[in-house]
Fold dTDP-glucose 4,6-dehydratase.
Amino acid sequence: MGLKKIKMLVTGGAGFIGSNFIRYVLNQNPNVIIMCVDKLTYAGNKQNLAGVIGPRCQFIKGDICDQVLMDSIAAECDMLINFAAESHNDNALAAPKPFIETNIVGTYTLLEVVRKYNLRYHQISTDEVYGDLPLDSLAKFDEHSPYRPSSPYSASKASADMLVRAWIRSFGIKATISNCTNNYGPLQHTEKFIPQQITRLKQGQPAYLYGDGTNVRDWLHVTDHVRALYMILFAGRIGETYLISSDCLYSNVAIVKQLLAVMHLPSDFYCYGPDRPGHDLKYALDNHKIKRELNWYPRKTDLTANLAALVELY
Ligand SMILES: NC(=O)c1ccc[n+]([C@@H]2O[C@H](COP(=O)([O-])OP(=O)(O)OC[C@H]3O[C@@H](n4cnc5c(N)ncnc54)[C@H](O)[C@@H]3O)[C@@H](O)[C@H]2O)c1
């Protein structure tokens, strides 16, 4: 007799991290069947799921704010993992409203169907909810750090996390949250920092840095991230928050210099532009809890090799 199939609703699965997650889960667990709901905004691309949509992965074009649609799909599912979001800081500065709708109202809509059908829920969040650290600080944010978002994007993600926490406490939903650092890897939209630089350099344009380029990010390869998400979903403690990072801290200018070296271009082939308003200086997350509780460790930590592979891919 076969094992009971697990029906997993993945929202935002046609985006960068969601599509990498779907591929990972389908390879990892033959008992999982996926229903992917994605609005296909400019950031979503059905091609990211090429070769995946089929008997074990159904695709439904839809909006997580659509309560009737989400109710009808959730009624048949066991778990829901939410990647759907407006995710680009520059867009949030230009027009915040879609961030409020998808990131806050959308999460609320999902929490209500999770409550109704008693689904296991996981919310994907970001290190940006904690605000930033001084550039020379050696501190890291941990699960107990206060939320101090600085941009419309991070404020909308922080709001969504607060809703999840309240639904856990008030309604006892079986939920977890993870906050992760900057991801990079295959299928990322070219609006994001690393693919944008690779695309510019391949077109013969210099790399482009906001401000003085000294802002520091903690770079996590997407394959390490999706493996962590799978572990949290199946072995994480209900009600907990897990921070995911790979202790790979580099300034933006250092990333650009690595790319220039990988692409055999002059080390000064970059230019500076005006700084992003409210630009966070430095993010760093303490990953001890996920290591200790779930025995998760980052594996793809060779940044130079990972960048070289991406240069080949884009
Ligand atoms: N990429 C990173 O570095 C990073 C870092 C930390 C956290 N995160 C979080 O991870 C999640 C996924 O990020 P990503 O980089 O894959 O983003 P992405 O922009 O590549 O993908 C988001 C997906 O959500 C879909 N979507 C947007 N609004 C929707 C709606 N209303 N209904 C249904 N689908 C909708 C889009 O079409 C797209 O496919 C987000 O919650 C983001 O905040 C990302």
About this structure: The CA atoms of residues 142 and 286 lie 5 Å apart. The chain has a mean pLDDT of 96. Residues 11-12, 14-18, 37-41, 43-44, 63-65, 83-87, 102, 106, 124, 126, 157, 180, 182-183, 189 surround nicotinamide-adenine-dinucleotide (CB under 6 Å). The chain has ten helices and 13 strands.
